[in-house]
Amino acid sequence: MATWSNFNLQNGASPLMEQIIFFHDHTLIILIMITILVSYLMINLLFNKYINRPLLEGQMIELIWTILPAITLIFIALPSLRLLYLLDELNNPLITLKSIGHQWYWSYEYSDFHNIEFDSYMIPSNELNSNNFRLLDVDNRIILPMNNQIRIMITATDVIHSWTIPSLGVKVDANPGRLNQTNFFINRPGIYYGQCSEICGANHSFMPIVIESISIKNFINWINNYS
Question: Where is the Cytochrome oxidase subunit II copper A binding domain (predicted)?
Fold first, then answer.
């Protein structure tokens, strides 16, 4: 989860989030190089006294400053397209989770198992324990196994919500009357926090999402005990 004075992205807990971080760093390096080059040229122009009165055109320099930005954009576009296709790829999911957005809480259904569905509300400040996070913890967490492909199907019953877990690289809109899907792969155990990131009304800030990632053995025990 995000912490104080953390200016970087959160540590990736899934391969897709790691790829997003790599792409962010790659693009940032290109932007820094462009900024340094343009700053150097502008400072040079301000502080030199060179003049060229008969200069009317320069086809070679115009060719260069047209082709170089195009090549730079290709270096950004190709990794971006690769990442977009990776985010849409769905590889034989082990579990399908259905998430339904309401004003202002989430409902979850484990479609592969009978009778496993529950609502997830934020824990009020006056009911928090010492190990809970204010505005982030919920009464019913999503329990998922690590090292397995998970498919999540997302919709809403009233207004547009957005199911977002930054450390997993997941952000999907929940639209009424429409079913969106995405997938993720959690590569280590832990607790991952998210929130609705689409302004959905007065209590938009108070419908957090919490995923608890556990081993497949513990997940099977949880399923058996829940049923």
Answer: 92-225
- Residue 135 DSSP SS3: coil
Q: Which two tokens stand for residue 1?
A: 């989860």
pLDDT in tens, 3-36: 777 788 888 889 999 999 999 999 999 999 999 9
In words, the CATH class of domain 15-88 is mainly alpha
C-alpha torsion angle, residues 62, 68, 73, 75 (rounded to 10): 170
Per-residue pLDDT tens over the stretch 88-117 = 888 888 899 999 999 889 999 998 887 789
Q: Candidates 3.30.870.10, 2.40.37.10, 3.20.20.10, 2.60.40.420; correct CATH number of 95-225?
A: 2.60.40.420
Q: Please say if the pLDDT value at position 189 is more than 90.
A: yes
Q: What integer is the mean pLDDT of 201-211?
A: 89
Which strands form 170-174's sheet, in the order they lie side by side?
142-145, 209-214, 190-196, 161-165, 170-174
Query: Can you give the residue ranges of every domain in the chain?
Result: 15-88, 95-225
Taken in order 89, 143, 226, 119, the sign of the CA dihedral is: negative
In the chain, where do the E strands start and end? 95-102, 105-110, 117-120, 142-145, 149-156, 161-165, 170-174, 180-185, 190-196, 209-214
